Amino acid sequence: MSPVQAHAGRPSGLVPGDGLPVRRVPVTAISLKLPWPPKELSPNARGRWPGIKATIRYRQAAFILAMDARNRLRLKGPLTPPVTAYVTFLAPDRRHRDEDNALASLKAAWDGLVRAGLLASDRASDLHIVTDGFETEHGGEPGVLVRLAGGKE
After folding, report:
1. What is the pTM of this model?
2. pLDDT in the model for residue 152
3. What is the pLDDT of residue 73?
4. Does the pLDDT value for residue 23 go beyond 70?
5. CA 90, CA 54: separation in Å to the nearest integer?
């Protein structure tokens, strides 16, 4: 699976540059596969400076993936709130993990999605986060699968 999958509901024969007009349709779902959050982003992590550097790197990774999704869909602005984010953690192993801490470690990712202009805001009134839990038998790279739904261009 590619890191970015975007489904815009556009008919398959209607692509930019083929001589046909491009129809702007509401975006129904955008899927991003973010990297697994570093342990320094956990609320239980110790040490300030490693956490700051990890936050900057993770926010930048989310920003790049979100900009790629925006460019592929040719979005003019952020998804219209309220947006629902369905989050699935693709765990690297079978260890037990706390779901609340895992969600808290994604704060830098939400900031990156806002900075990229994919989301208008990460306030609770604009972004509803639904956790689908942890998958340990995913057969791929560990990461975080984020599906954004409900917004329009």
Report:
1. 0.77
2. 52
3. 87
4. no
5. 19
- What are the tokens at 114? 């806002």
Angular region, 19: left φ>0, alpha ψ -120 to 50, beta rest:
left
Contact residues for 124 (Cβ-Cβ < 8 A; gap 6+): none
Between 152 and 146, the more confident residue is: 146
Tell me whether residue 48 is exposed, middle or buried, using C-beta atoms within 10 angstroms of its C-beta: 0 to 12, 13 to 18, 19 or more. exposed
Residues 6 or more apart in contact with residue 40 via CB below 8 angstroms: 47, 50, 51, 53, 54, 55
Q: Which of 9, 31, 34, 35 is nearest to 22 (CA)?
A: 9
Q: Is the pLDDT of residue 18 over 60?
A: no
Q: Give residue 136's pLDDT band: very low, low, confident or very high (50, 70, 90).
A: confident
Residues contacting residue 72 through CB under 8 Å, at least 6 positions apart = 4, 6
33-to-8, 12, 25, 97 alpha-carbon distances in Å:
17, 23, 23, 19
Q: Which of 37, 110, 124, 34 is nearest to 78 (CA)?
A: 110
Residue type, 61: A
